[in-house]
Design goal:
Number of domains: 4
CATH superfamily of the largest domain: inorganic pyrophosphatase (n-terminal core)
Helix content: 25-40%
Shape: elongated
Strand order of the largest sheet: 3-2-1-15-16-17
Length: about 525
């Protein structure tokens, strides 16, 4: 059973990571299989929190786009390289294949056999050197001819002999395989010559066996003219397997990546290899239609632009969020846990209480940390009385006696940006919005050293200009929040009229200080949204 994947938004903050981890733990305690994930690198602040409570970072998830392993139907037919052409033809005819994957004894891919190659082999076979030019086995021969051993001990393994007709008596020598319609003519001479085997084409009632013969005799119920062509079908796939190039895929490959390859290729049957290097099966274009969708839970976000790639291929079963809902659509009903609080983890804790489960100490610590982070130690206007009450309850469970001091240590640990490039600073917590037809990006960082960060102003502006050009943004805003002064410096590139109108300020060198603004969700986005309506 595949686990439910639980993840926050791209460029995850502490609330995003901690809500995914704590909700995944809750589901596991309720008997469900769940996996917390992240869509980006964790911040220094989040790293501080995870180290504090000895929790590993969630696994990185790049996409939930459907993979080959999600397909509801995989063709499982293959052919062993030692098997006969007849067996390959039988499979191809029954399954309507024009080609088959060829595997060795370890089920590793050796190549592809095409029906055209089998047809060409039949046309070019010289029966005189059938067993010397081509590889086959006594087992294949007996199976193809549906023969019955009526005398002697039937050999095993590879056939290394010349095929002769009894009419070629003068050319028959020791070690040959002789095909005949009767045992009456010179059979004792053949045995005395030391032939390896006699293929007898006749009805069972016509068989008169020689006395005390140790020479194997394989009786075939059919005429000589019917039997000889059948013998050619006994040669092994390995005998005619060429080195023609072909496409093969892995079970981890995503359908979106292979669709065009399959569409444009003349190949119709594509081998799939599993993680052990064995052939998992084969797929055809028609198999791509139906697949099992990965079950996902979105926390701390609900918009596709902020979520994982390939989200449309997944099945969203739940959303836990404290943000506004925008352009949120699903193909089926979804459980939504949304509330006007300062942190997603406040809602997650409610889910623990609804389930009558006390969170483990470590998870309580993570949820406490997320609330302190998202509310900026209860200073953010997004903070509610419920956030404060929940934080106090979680602090007791997590045994964090002085959560005010812990919270400040956490925030300070996350404010050092000295080792970050301008690109990393702008993308570590960036969200994309469209406001009345205006496409923009808003990034936010918390710090205790606004001046030090602005020393990189020129480099930051260059990156913002480039991002606007590449992604088609009309505006980029970097909100540099001072966690001590409880205000923010805005660095703006693009349509600055929206920012100046929204905050009733005048930009100087692309910057403006806005006192008391610490929340992107409640104090930046709504003001810019209102301003965009009049631009």
């Amino acid at each position: 059973m595949e686990p439910i994947l639980i993840f926050g938004h791209k460029n995850p903050d502490t609330d995003s990571i901690c809500s995914a981890l704590s909700l995944a733990t809750l589901k596991e305690l309720q008997g469900e299989k769940a996996q917390a994930c992240r869509l980006g690198n964790i911040s220094k602040e989040t790293e501080f929190v995870l180290n504090k409570f000895n929790i590993e970072a969630p696994m990185f998830l790049s996409t939930v786009s459907a993979q080959i392993s999600d397909l509801t139907h995989i063709e499982k037919k293959t052919i062993n390289h030692k098997d006969s052409l007849k067996k390959a033809l039988e499979i191809m005819t029954k399954e309507n294949y024009s080609s088959l994957p060829v595997v060795n004894s370890k089920n590793h891919l050796k190549g592809m056999i095409h029906i055209s190659e089998i047809a060409n082999a039949y046309l070019n076979i010289d029966y005189a050197d059938l067993f010397t030019k081509y590889h086959t086995t006594y087992e294949n021969l007996k199976h193809v001819l549906n023969g019955e051993v009526v005398s002697g001990e039937y050999p095993t393994g590879q056939i290394q002999a010349n095929l002769k007709g009894v009419s070629e008596y003068r050319n028959i020598s020791s070690g040959d395989i002789v095909i005949t319609t009767t045992l009456l003519d010179s059979v004792d001479d053949l045995i005395e010559l030391g032939v390896k085997m006699i293929i007898l084409c006749c009805d069972k009632e016509d068989v008169i066996l020689p006395r005390d013969s140790k020479t194997p005799i394989l009786r075939v119920n059919g005429s000589l003219f019917r039997t000889i062509p059948l013998i050619s079908q006994s040669i092994s796939i390995l005998s005619i397997l060429g080195n023609e190039k072909f496409y093969s895929f892995s079970t981890d490959d995503h359908l979106i990546d292979i669709k065009d390859i399959m569409k444009e290729s003349s190949q119709t049957n594509f081998p799939v290899i599993d993680n052990n290097g064995e052939v998992y099966g084969t797929i055809r274009t028609k198999n791509l239609i139906n697949f099992n969708r990965k079950k996902v839970v979105l926390v701390d976000h609900n918009e596709a632009t902020q979520s994982v790639d390939g989200l449309k291929d997944s099945r969203i079963i739940q959303v836990v969020d404290h943000h506004k809902f925008g352009n949120f659509e699903t193909n089926e009903p979804v459980r939504i846990n949304a509330e006007t609080v300062g942190s997603t983890c406040t809602i997650v804790y409610d889910l623990y209480k609804d389930a009558d489960i006390i969170p483990p100490k470590e998870m309580a610590g993570l949820m406490l940390s997320a609330i302190l982070s998202d509310t900026l130690m209860f200073k953010s206007p997004t903070c509610t009385e419920k956030d404060i009450e929940v934080a106090k309850e979680l602090a007791k469970i997590a045994e964090v006696n002085d959560f005010q001091t812990y919270g400040m240590d956490m925030l300070i640990a996350g404010t050092s940006l000295s080792d970050k490039t301008p690109e990393e600073i702008l993308t570590m917590d960036q969200k994309e919005f469209t406001m009345n037809g205006i496409k923009l990006a808003i990034s936010q960082v918390n710090t205790v050293d606004v001046k030090g960060l602005l020393d990189q102003k020129e480099n930051l502006e260059n990156v913002m200009n480039k991002t606007n050009e590449v992604k088609g943004y009309q505006l980029s805003v970097l909100v540099i929040t001072d966690i001590v002064k409880a205000g923010s410096m805005l660095l703006v590139i693009g349509d600055s009229n929206i920012v100046e109108k929204g905050f009733h300020t005048q930009l100087e060198n692309n910057t403006a200080w806005v006192d008391g603004v610490v929340s992107r969700k409640k104090q930046v986005v709504p003001f810019l949204m209102a301003a965009s309506q009049g631009v």
